[in-house]
Amino acid sequence: MRNIARKGAKSDLHFLMDGDMIVSVGMAEKITKIANEMLDGNQKNVLLVRRFESEKGTVIPRTVSNLRVSMNENNNPNWEPQPIFHRNAPYGPNYIPSRIKTVSSTIYKLCRAGYSFNVLSHVFTVQEGVKLEDTVFSQAVALHQHRNAKDRASKRYTLEINAEYPNTLEKCGEFYL
């Protein structure tokens, strides 16, 4: 789905994020200048926005200072990267099952393609609700994907990425689904 969204985007800058993410206050204004400078289509740069989760019912942090408080109170300093890159950047694989590292596989491909990563410290996104339990349907879908699609996708992705970028394995390491 992310590749479809990218193909239809009119902007030169693509931000891979879920639609229910809440961005920090003033994010667009804070990153516009650096994004336009670093993501011009001529340089192989990626900006990484830190993605956090907050427990349902808690106050969603919107500023860096509120984020610090939230992380301390909830004892959850973990984050995942959400990339912003130029439209010329390689697309991620379409066949990775949706619940199994789709963004990570794109980031790994960018590494193998020689991109540099720059973590933004002054902006972030938050998703409300730490997923503690899945519905029965969600569990069934995840189980099916893990049993039937994960190994095939992993083998295919490894073969493709090693053929396309044979000299960057040492730099980026192995990728595991």
Q: Please write the string of helix (H) and strand (E) elements.
A: HEEHEHEHEHH
Query: Whole-number radius of gyration?
Result: 17 Å
Oligomer designation: single chain
Q: Work out the count of structural domains.
A: 1
Shape: globular
The separation of the N and C termini measures 18 Å
Derived from helix and strand composition plus strand pairing, the structural class reads alpha+beta
- Output the strand order for the largest sheet: 1-4-3-5-2
Task: Report the uncertain regions.
Answer: none
Figure out the total of helices: 6
Give the tally of β-strands.
5
Strand content: 15-25%
Describe the structure.
By secondary structure, the chain is α+β, with helices and mostly antiparallel strands. The chain has one domain. 42% of the residues lie in helices and 20% in strands. Strands 1-4-3-5-2 form a five-stranded mixed β-sheet, with helices on both faces. The longest helix has 29 residues. It is globular and about 45 Å long.
Topology of this structure?
Blueprint: H1 2-8, E1 13-15, E2 22-23, H2 27-38, E3 45-54, H3 64-74, E4 80-86, H4 102-112, E5 116-128, H5 136-164, H6 169-172
Parallel strand pairs: 3-5
Antiparallel strand pairs: 1-4, 2-5, 3-4
Brief synopsis:
This protein has 177 residues and is of the alpha+beta class.
Main traits of this protein?
alpha+beta; 177 residues; Hexosyltransferase; five-stranded mixed β-sheet
